[in-house]
Amino acid sequence: MKVEQIVEATLFASQTPLTADEVARADENLVAESVVEAIQVLRDVYEASERAFQIYQLGDGYQILTRPEYAPYLERFDSVPRAPHLSPAALETLAIIAYRNPIGRIEIEEVRGVSASSVLRTLLDWELVEVVGRGEGLGRPLLYGVTRMFLEHFGLKDLSDLPAPDELPVVLGELQQAMEAEVEEVEPEAEEDGATESAPREEAEGEGH
Q: What does the alpha-carbon distance between residue 132 and residue 85 come to, in Å, rounded to a whole number?
């Protein structure tokens, strides 16, 4: 059996990103270097054959995912897992944490000018941020940082892939427009079926000022 087939089968079966070392455990003759080479071969094959999926590097792992341009079609099916729709407040808070982590709640609120407690709870529930330590100030406040799930959600290898700070407003605007377009396609059908939004999303959009 070819290395590419073993690697493809392993990544296809996994619901989470796998590192090259983890994939190499599939066969005693595999090593991380050969896994990385096989992944590149598979990427080229998928690209040449115009497949609807590709192998993406997320953090230090790899995962087979549907290409982003097919998301509007998949949104129509309840059986397809959906990424959380992030409100503007959630996106702003995530951006602050990503660029300044570790950072405390008070500092986040100073930047945004509004309370961040509610949106932080939502981001913690979604595992996009996590507590990474405590500050040295009064009461030793909790410090927050982004998670591997954050990298996976936005398709980033690491935080160095983030846009430059001066490009951030444009990037956030594009993300928000894309999410609003997806919501407009999905929500009319959801209303007809009497469906309601999940509690985390309501909490993020209803954050107090």
A: 24
Q: How far apart are CA 171 and CA 148, in angstroms?
A: 20
Tens-place pLDDT, residues 146-192: 988 888 777 777 888 787 766 765 665 665 565 555 445 544 444 44
Predicted model pTM: 0.50
Residue 146, both tokens: 């982004």
Q: What is the CATH number of the domain that holds 130?
A: 1.10.10.10
* 182 and 140 in a common domain: yes
Q: By residue range, what is the domain housing residue 190?
A: 88-205
Angstrom distances, CA of residue 20 to CA of 1, 41, 154: 18, 14, 21
Residues 56 and 119 placed together within one structural domain of the fold = no
pLDDT tens track for 58-113: 778 898 988 878 877 877 877 766 666 677 888 888 888 988 889 999 999 988 88
What pLDDT was estimated at residue 154?
77
Placement of tokens 């690697």 in the chain: 7
Which residue, among 126, 128, 122, has the nearest Cα to 150 in the 3D structure? 128
Residue 106 and residue 21: Cα distance in Å, rounded? 40
Report the C-alpha gap between 208 and 109 in whole angstroms. Answer: 12
Q: Looking at the structure, tell me whether residues 170 and 133 fall in a common domain.
A: yes
The rounded radius of gyration (Å) of the Cα atoms in the chain is: 20
Instruction: Assess whether 176 and 112 both reside in one domain.
Output: yes
* Token duo for residue 57: 């590097």
